[in-house]
Amino acid sequence: MNAEQTLVALSDRSPQVAPEELIEGLVPPPQFEDVSFDSYRTDPAEPSQEEARNKLREFTERSTSPGFFGKLFSKGKSSGAKGVYLDGGYGVGKTHLLASAWHANEKPATFGTFVEYTNLVGALGFARARDDLSKMKLVCVDEFELDDPGDTVLMSRLMRELTDAGVKIIATSNTLPGSLGEGRFAAQDFLREIQALADQFEVYRIDGKDYRARELTAPADPLPEAELDSAASRLDGVVARDDFSELLSHLSTVHPSRYGRMVDGIDAAVWENVRTIDNESVALRFVALVDRLYDRNVHIINSGAALDKVFTEESLTGGYKKKYMRCLSRLTALSS
Predict the structure, then answer these.
(1) Could you tell me the maximum CA-CA distance found in the chain, to the nearest angstrom?
(2) Where is the composition biased (Basic and acidic residues) (predicted)?
(3) Where are the domains of the chain?
(4) What is the pTM of this model?
């Protein structure tokens, strides 16, 4: 370890967040704290990206008022939509645009992942969470996913009551709102709730290639243990070094909504003995961790299996395929 390095282990960290801190913590993560609509680099070959930026810029510049949403989206003919839902593949800049909207919009406003909002409701209770969020001018929801029926009912009701209170909502996802839950649970049994949720939004599609893959197509190669020690010793700042299996086990003891707090202040991560994850619940927790590492631009080096072999072929073709593919894209960026 060099003199400019502090060595820690993520598996030793179990952050606790007081309920009153949860709303205050709903702000864009460090990687997106200085972004703007102007800094969003559109692909000239994909006009939907420029159109999405223009739509969000217009959306955030207007104040909420009775009948505003219908006028915005239907040119005088009310569509019933009360927010913007950005649908698109991974790596097209949806989170950049969402954070830009947060920065541009009148405050107070919140920015968080879907799981952070469901955790907020769990910690505060539905009534208090709704009342606190109803004070916002804008609520931004990143990585909108419905992984179980309980979340479907909960978020449908919350979004409906917030929009009824005049709160603007912008959500991003890799899945159209009418298709949320597909391949994960019996979505047809909750079609009414899913449709009610979809009706809250005007859906806008963003097309394009994964910008992270324009120059990089695969994560960096894993290192032999001796080389890993040498490479790790050259890292500066706060370095989190963990055995991969121990880290995965530890993630089950920390709620995913606290993963961001768990990795705060980390500059680099060193994972020993990376292996393929053969359990879906474990894999999804790992995805949530990588998302928070990506938010903070944490460099990763590893031994064991290559990072693009961390998920099984079955996982990469199942109901969570888009989540896993986004994770692989982010691992490529962080390891390179």
Answers:
(1) 67
(2) 40-53
(3) 5-16+212-335, 44-208
(4) 0.79
Q: Is 197 exposed, middle or buried (0-12, 13-18, 19+ CB in 10 A)?
A: buried
| Of residues 237 and 188, more confidently modeled | 237
Angle between helices 94-104 and 47-61 (to 10 degrees): 20
Does residue 91 surpass a pLDDT of 90?
no
Least confident of 54-68, 96-110, 290-304: 54-68
Q: Is 305 helix (H, G, I), strand (E, B) or coil?
A: coil
- Within 10 Å of residue 104's Cβ, how many Cβ atoms? 16
Residue with tokens 């394009």: 208
Distance of CA 228 to the CA centre of its chain: 29
Percent of the chain topping pLDDT 90:
55
| Domain 44-208 homologous superfamily, CATH | P-loop containing nucleotide triphosphate hydrolases (3.40.50.300)
292, 290, 260, 29: which is closest to 140 by C-alpha?
Answer: 29
171, containing H or E segment:
strand 168-173
CA dihedral (48, 53, 56, 57) positive or negative: negative
Asked if 159 and 121 touch (Cβ cutoff 8 Å), the reply is no
Cβ(211)–Cβ(329) under 8 Å?
no
pLDDT of residue 213: 54
Give the C-alpha separation, 177 to 174, whole Å.
Answer: 9
Q: Which two tokens stand for residue 236?
A: 């500066």
12 by Cβ neighbours in 10 Å (0-12 / 13-18 / 19+) ranks as exposed
